TrEMBL record:
<dbReference type="Pfam" id="PF08665">
    <property type="entry name" value="PglZ"/>
</dbReference>
<feature type="compositionally biased region" description="Basic and acidic residues">
    <location>
        <begin position="14"/>
        <end position="23"/>
    </location>
</feature>
<protein>
    <submittedName>
        <fullName>PglZ domain protein</fullName>
    </submittedName>
</protein>
<feature type="compositionally biased region" description="Low complexity">
    <location>
        <begin position="925"/>
        <end position="934"/>
    </location>
</feature>
<feature type="compositionally biased region" description="Low complexity">
    <location>
        <begin position="1"/>
        <end position="13"/>
    </location>
</feature>
<feature type="region of interest" description="Disordered">
    <location>
        <begin position="1"/>
        <end position="24"/>
    </location>
</feature>
<feature type="region of interest" description="Disordered">
    <location>
        <begin position="897"/>
        <end position="934"/>
    </location>
</feature>
Amino acid sequence: MSADARAPGARAPGVRDSDDASRAQRLGLGPVSAALERDLRQFVRRHGLSVWLDPAGHYTELVDHLAQLPSAPEPGHLDYEVRAFRGSYLALMHELANLTSGVHPPRLLVHLPGLNDRSIRTTPLYELYKAGKCYSKSLDTAVSEAAAGRVPPDDLAALCARADLSLAAADAWLSERVSGGVGGGLRATLENISASALIGDLLRGEGVATRLRDPGDAAALWAHLEAALGLRADWARSTGAGEAADADADPGAQVGAQADTVRAEDVAFAMASWAQAVEYVGDLRRPPVSPLLAGVSALPAAVRTACGELAEHLRQAHADFYRRTADETEDRLADEVAAARAEDLGRIDTFRFEEDKILEAAIAALRAREFDRASEYVQVRAGLRSPWVALDAGRRAAWQLVAAATALGQAIADAGAKLAANDHDAALAAYCERGARVDRLHRELEQARFKLLGPQVPRFDAVRACLDDLRAAWRAWADAWAEGFTVLCERDGFLPRAELQQRHLFDDVVRAHAQAGTTALFLVDALRYEMATALLAAIVNIDGTAATSVRLDARFAELPTVTEVGMNALAPVSARGRLTPKIANGTFQGFSAGEFQVKDPETRRRAMGARVGGSTCPLLSLSEVLARDARSLKHSVAQARLVVVHSLEIDQAGEHGTGLAAFEDALHTLRNAWQLLRDAGIKRFVFTADHGFLLLDSGAGSGGAAAAQAHGRKIDPKRRHVISSVAADHSGEVRAPLSALGYDGSELHAMFPRTCAPFDTGARARDFVHGGNSLQERVIPVLSVVHRSDAGGTTLRYRVEVTDRDKPLGDLGGVHRLRAGVRVAGQSALDFGAAGEIELALRAREPADVSAELVSVSGGARIEGGRLLAKVGEDFELHFRLSGNTEARALVELHHPGRSAELEPGGPARRFSVTPAVKQRPADAEPTSAAAASEAARAPAASWLAQLPAGVREVFAHIEAHGVCVENEASALLGGARKLRRFSAEFEKHAALAPFGVRIDTVGGIKRYVKEGTRT
């Protein structure tokens, strides 16, 4: 028999703990009294001094019995003292004097019959009452709690309604009901297993499922389900579980009277569908409208809890069966579906229609810009806790997009519609504290849109409209902040105080670090401030120890915010705070620095090396760092005070239009380079940038071609600035003489759009632009990382263990599933520094030209900033896609992409299908006649259809001939609802034999089996 999946210490209705049963026997208590004493015992253990108010005096005989039992931590004894008021306050207070005089609260129960929380105030025991904890329970509640799950709910309700109800009568009644009845040995078995264990037996055909051929045992099972889950006869019959029963059977009859024998899978379906219905009603914020659900709300609380726990167990342990059952049950609740409103639904998506209604409401809230209301919906669904979201790639994508849009909307509202700043310092602080978060969420939303938005997303048009609305909201916010900063610059000048200028960064920050020890300076083209916040978080996550200090500051980039200005200004090229630029044809060529011109990476390295000294000043590209190991890097930097690392990845990806796909990878690459250089012995790092960028909509909408700003001839402006010899002011622009920007030797002027609009250059609009005066372009990060100790060479080794080898997870909606975990494999020396999380990446091992895309993860792992972080020792379930120019099936493996841990890659032995690129049919290919194609299609029919059982063979033949088979057609071909359920349970096994793919769609509540393509 399967083990009970219930958490330790939990108790299912209808499941008697053998220790409790033997304790009740030793104490001489009936079943209701025993349950009440168990509750009392736990209460006294928690609270010590406990005062039991018993206004009606129902429990006097029980207390007198308990008071006669010895108090000792032994079998047949009480582990707490019992005292009672029996007419004399003085006598009771005398008894309590010695028991309540200690320092620690005594384990003491004081029974006060005839008193309630008001009348006790006039007695001498009021001080005792205030000092202790009050215990109170009505008799009908005590009876319900003891009997729920052990007798039918209607019988229990009738007992509790009796005017002459007493504890002794309830004990006698429940004892008789529990000990009598049909089923003999099976009844005793059922009394001692949970509903989750029972349904496991039924689904696997084990244990209880093997004992249902005897009519008495079948009746005992139905009687048990009626008691434990409240499962009604009419509900069981409506599911087909009681089809063998008399069609005219009394709807109020007990379930056990339905049939002589039952099928295990039918009972499991009835149990599951009923549990789902009860859970749905319990989570509903209004009374149900379906007559099928009448009376569910009146079930005892313990029974409703048992149904909810069973539904949750099925979601976790039998997900496919849960979804099939829920879909069929939903079809029977059409009136509930029609009446459903999002505000009526709770936090559990028992049925598919609930999640759909909530998604619809979240989208509506987004369209209305009610972001807090949308967030309430997102918190549950986007976290993959809904079964309909977790395993449906399209729905998961929809919720991820809605969640990202909601977060952006809330951040815009929190940041404020306008820039509230009186000077450059305040503007910088406002952007770093509030504005950068908006831009990070905007970038992440655009990345998610690029990755996830497609026709497979439910409510595609509505979701896309929401994203367009958020684009417009972000653009309006960014334009308003840009205009506010422009006004500030017009009033106070474009240059902040010296401590915030890019031109002083090297001497103020880098030189100081280099004097203290070897320093790696990362010059990252277009590393926006918000990106540095993500990089900082990744570094802290990997090495967030007290021996590492991390500081993120910000400065203003020089104008215009282009590479040839910002990168060269990062070198020590200023003299008395002024710069001498070289300009040709309106384009900056670099800056003069003494006897030579700083204009490229090599001249920047020379200027920096000369300023800090040292035997060498290596210049490395980011790719060079990643291509070398720690030993080689250590040799290269051994005599250096400064190591310059030059990175173009972010800017190049943006300029080539691939930024949305590459930004996260670029940040990961920076982090990996930091790890390598740290392993090479460098303890000081500075990350900074030449400029930021604006991420605009390159279409015809906001920020696209239609929003471009004209400036004379289209050949005059760059995308975000103009250098002109004419001091002319234009509408929508702001002008600054280069001399006002701290440049010497030039009479030219720089002009910038006042907002985020690009200039109309006649070229195709781009989403990645820079050169202007917006805060997104001008605020650059200065991220300093200092390690006070060498990189810790941990001796721990890890391995990836695939945990679903014996029972592989199937694919869902084109998304592959894999269950795995990270384990400690061993260590070469004593090491107590096991990592809490290990970063993993998924790759195709064979063939190599297949790319893997992470979709989602659940369990002991999370995806953060595009990284898969797995907890050591915990299993997780990974959902992913594979794509490539191949039709071969691929082997995949999980590996560690960095060098911070030693991990042995691992993956399943099974292969996964690859989504191939669309191939065009060669123009000279010989066409295939329709007759030949038809003949070829029929050829294998005899072989594969013959392998299918009768009924199933007809369904697949129908799908092959017509392309689709709806559920009612399948039911007719198979021979009824019961056989349809079995077909659904074994669908994957049958579909694997077909020479074409078959998917399951649900449209308007109707399930369809749809033919997809031909397998080779």
